[in-house]
Write a structure and sequence with these properties.
By secondary structure, the chain is α/β, with parallel strands linked by helices. It contains eight helices and seven strands; from the N terminus they run ααβαβαββαβαααββ. Strand 4, helix 5 and strand 5 form a beta-alpha-beta unit.
């Protein structure tokens, strides 16, 4: 994987792909609501766009953003990009179950591997940015998305913000969320340990905004929040 992609594909192996849908819905309270609202925000922004083309970066796992958008907008088409073969296979199964394969181009790889001339009416980057290590790689990923968007096109960004250890109350509440779903104290401890070691989220909402500004996007509109998680809409401005 290149530095502008979604983090090493090995992190999202077959074992993780098989449990991704269940685990994500526990880790993110409001998982489905966030994806539904992301679809609503893009539909409200694009208006009567007809057959809009949407770039979905990090589509592997549940393909929930595509499912939500397709349900709302029957004429939209999607390009689903993910560097993890197991995660992309899991997403493909979901798209097949929802009869969406004929509306989706599936790309195993990264944004940099897309045809240079291909441009999109909008893009989503949901649950990805906090898995990309370092600000330079985050910036490069956002710039790669920027290069494939039409002028003024909207981008949905959603993911964790804040250094986890900097928000002990939120971290404890996250542990209680797992306990609420039946995890034992030892299992909670293991999960929180993995969380602390396994991701590199932007350290604040201001940091998210700076990354977007530096990559050529405008101010954000936040439309969802859940513990560490935030979701924003922005636009290509430069």
């Amino acid at each position: 994987m290149k530095s502008a992609t979604l983090n090493t594909p090995d992190k999202f192996d077959t074992s993780r792909a098989s449990e991704y849908g269940t685990q994500s819905r526990i880790a993110l309270a409001g998982y489905d609501a966030c994806h539904d609202l992301a679809a609503c925000m893009l539909a409200a922004t694009l208006g009567n766009a007809g057959a809009a083309k949407i770039l979905v970066v990090g589509a592997g796992g549940t393909a929930q953003e595509i499912i939500a958008m397709a349900r709302l907008e029957p004429h939209w088409r999607f390009t689903a990009v993910d560097p993890s073969a197991p995660m992309l296979a899991a997403a493909t199964q979901q798209l097949e179950a929802h009869q969406l394969l004929d509306r989706t181009d599936i790309v195993h790889g990264d944004v940099e591997g897309l045809v240079a001339a291909q441009s999109y009416d909008a893009a989503t980057l949901i649950g990805v940015l906090h898995h990309v290590p370092g600000d330079d790689a985050k910036h490069q990923l956002l710039r790669s998305i920027h290069a494939h968007l039409k002028p003024g096109a909207p981008l949905i960004v959603a993911g964790n913000r804040h250094a986890y250890a900097s928000q002990p109350l939120l971290l404890q509440a996250w542990g209680q969320r797992w306990r609420q779903q039946g995890a034992s104290p030892d299992e909670v401890k293991v999960k929180l340990g993995k969380i602390l070691q396994g991701a590199d989220p932007p350290h604040s909402e201001a940091a998210v905004q700076k990354l977007l500004h530096d990559a050529g996007f405008g101010d954000t509109t936040q439309f969802f929040s859940s513990l560490f998680w935030g979701a924003w809409l922005t636009y290509k401005t430069a």
